[in-house]
Write the structure tokens for this entry.
Amino acid sequence: MSGLHHLHRRMRISQNLEPFPGRSFKIRVLDYIMYVVGIISPLALLPQILQIYNTKSSVGVSLLTWVLLAVANVLWIIYALVHKDKILLFSSGLMIVFHLAIVAGILMY
């Protein structure tokens, strides 16, 4: 995997992309804000999880949607591993745990 990471880094340099964290103050602030958003975003799923488990009902919640979201998050986890992005890995890992909690709730109720 480190070979892919090296290739990705070389592609970024050759494409003249902005490094992380950004060189300018504004871009650095945006970079760190997005890290916070990436960590907090999974918490948006908690109301759905609480509703399913507190009411013991999954009426109106689509199993297919949540399964597809979980599969998509597996791809994000692979991407984060390849690029050695710990924040993206944490965020995607938390998202998949929450997605699977919702899928389990739908299947139970």
Observations:
- The two ends are 41 Å apart (CA to CA).
